[in-house]
Fold these 2 entries.
Entry 1:
Amino acid sequence: ETGVTQSPTHLIKTRGQQVTLRCSSQSGHNTVSWYQQALGQGPQFIFQYYREEENGRGNFPPRFSGLQFPNYSSELNVNALELDDSALYLCASSSGDGTDTQYFGPGTRLTVL
Amino acid sequence: KQEVTQIPAALSVPEGENLVLNCSFTDSAIYNLQWFRQDPGKGLTSLLLIQSSQREQTSGRLNASLDKSSGRSTLYIAASQPGDSATYLCAVWNSGNTPLVFGKGTRLSVIA
């Protein structure tokens, strides 16, 4: 059973640019959630995808968007990057049946200059 | 709106000491509560999951308790070791497939 993987590990962008982060869910999991963790804070929920459909969204602007693919891997896209978007972006997968925990990937560290 | 608070924000203890980390949540109608460990700049490692019908869970030197009615959970670490140094995060979710709501964590340093 493979775990949750994320790419890239680190990324440096400048203000106004666009970025795409990727996540491969754990084998057998059809639900992927994305979280943003600023330095010294707990992770904040961005959105969740269940079987390729958005299934809930946190308090993030529309320039944060996502996709889930038929193999249940997922992308997080952020347009018009701002300095405050600098954070660790975490992806978590779960079985979607409501009884399972979420398993987290190692995260992508995004720095916006 | 569910809010999770963790006290203390930081803790430094000598090796071998037993310690307790605290987590409180405002909405007692939780589905599950989970404790995570996070090493600097890394992802989250699940330590213990307590379902709403349970009172505690144990894994090795770790014991987590849950009191839903008072909106509290504690994580007890016995005989702490320098390798336990990390940030410990508490998270709850309110129904089956809803997102986790996290506290800000407790940063633990165990001094050899």
Note: Chain A touches chain B at residues 6, 31, 33, 35, 40-45, 48, 50, 55-56, 58, 88, 90, 92, 94, 96-99, 101-107, 109 (CB under 8 Å).
Entry 2:
Amino acid sequence: DAGVTQSPTHLIKTRGQQVTLRCSPKSGHDTVSWYQQALGQGPQFIFQYYEEEERQRGNFPDRFSGHQFPNYSSELNVNALLLGDSALYLCASSSLGQGYEQYFGPGTRLTVT
Amino acid sequence: RKEVEQDPGPFNVPEGATVAFNCTYSNSASQSFFWYRQDCRKEPKLLMSVYSSGNEDGRFTAQLNRASQYISLLIRDSKLSDSATYLCVVGRYSGGGADGLTFGKGTHLIIQP
């Protein structure tokens, strides 16, 4: 049973560019949450997708957007990249209404230069 | 005041010792509580959920005090492999499902031989 997968593993972008990160949830899970983890900090909640809709959003600007596909996989898009967007981006999957546990993928490490 | 507060450490502990971590949370509406473990440059992994009645998993014991808004983790007979960052996490439930999680900054534990 495959766990949560994310791609790419690492990414280097230049300020002002746009980036798309991808996530496939654990089999049987229907909900995907995205988090940003800066160095030395705990993960911060960006948003959550369920049934192809954004269900909840954290305190992140509109430059951060997402999408969920019918197969439950998800994308995170970040426009107009800033140096401060450099972080580990984590995707977590869960099953809405069946417990609170979220399971994380290995993350995408984004460096903005 | 941060929503979840933890002592960042590092805690340097000899192998075989018992170590305890605490965290406090500010939102009394929080409904779910977890400890996650994160190894360097890896994703957070669920260590255990925390219940008011307290719960134990092998060498690990977690406790929740809702009145004081305080969560604890006790590790007995510590092993070198317990060296990691321990993240205190709280969550809420709305609209039929679990919301995005709120993480503390983590407590860094180093087990010394």
Note: The two ends of chain B are 37 Å apart (CA to CA).
